[in-house]
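Listing S7. Sequence submitted for prediction.
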Amino acid sequence: MATQTKQSSALTSPGYLVPFITVTALFFIFGFITNLNMALVPHLKKIFTLPYAWAMLAESAFFLAYFVFSAPTSKLIETIGYKKTMVVSLFIQVVGCLLFIPAAKMVSFPLFLTAVFIVGAGVTALQTSANPYVSILGPDTSSSIRLNLAQAFNSIGGTIAPIVAGAYILKDLAPDATQMQVADTVRIPYILIAAALLLLGLALAFMHLPHIEQTQAFRPGKEGDPILSRSIWSYKHTVLGAIGIFLYVGVEVGLASIAVNYFSSQGISSAKTASYLVSLYWGGALIGRLLGAGIMTKVKAGKLLGIFGLTAAILIAISMFTSGSVAIGTLVLCGFFNSVMFPNIFTLGIAGLGPMTSKGSGLIMTAVVGGAIVPLAIGALADKVGIQYSFVIPVICYLYIAYYGFAGHKPTRTVTS
């Protein structure tokens, strides 16, 4: 028992603390950009007078990129390594951000979606490379703790993004503002983001990060081992983990994307105020991740995931059948219980994969496409039965996540079996 505690307390392997801090900073980037993109849902709904389902296409375009680019990114990592993949991902995001300029000038919905998709492609590459890189910078026993700490920076970015969106994108314009004036509010924020990403990409390109050959570091044998020909689909806990990520990302994004409109239906008249409430939702995730890293030194990752999933399901059920501050507060609280879901599902899903880890990571990151599908389903159901009753979808998602935490994550097969 003492040995296990000692292993768990080692956050990184010797010499990897600075690389861990450096890559963790990148988690701020995709947290900020992902959540800023969510502000486009009510913004596009206002510009083009769209129903919820169509407005949710902004999320669908972003997370569709995960489905398209996760597997190719895994191949890119094997070809050029983690560091260069991260640099490439930042430059892709620069291109996507700059596309918002003509999209706003032309007031073009298809061009907005194209810009969102390209930004999503860059974030996909960054996530697919950064998550496993953080996981393997130290002992397996502390991988969930490392990823929770890194994801805390994701939450910091996510918490700041709605505040920026409320101040610059969702600001209350004059009632007679033209369609072009409303669309133009995205231009300055995305120009500044593009400049910051360009500088960060150049800095990272010249920074020293250890070159880690994941498939070599974890391989129990040599090149040509029969194990490398196995299908990742034969690992049940990984497949179930991918489903968990699909539902988790979908429900987290779906709730955040529709939250501004939902809060408005519960008596919050200002879009800016509603966006600040969304920042509290993401702030809860930040607090949860900081606390979660400590809690997981005493509570197993699976058990904690199960408890948080079940609690979130109960909170959303309460929000469905209440109104006003209770309905708003229970949704905001879900941010806290979302906190440990991604890092725990991810690390539990790739546990015991050894040389199959890159394949497992690719499969799980492909499942982030749930952020494209689940919000669309929530939006379509909201158009038919109202926002509150559409929350039956999040309840189902959280119940599955609870199942994965309590039972579904247990491996039935490892690289040695």
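Caption to Listing S7: primary sequence and predicted structure tokens for the chain studied. The chain has a mean pLDDT of 84. The chain has 20 helices and no strands.
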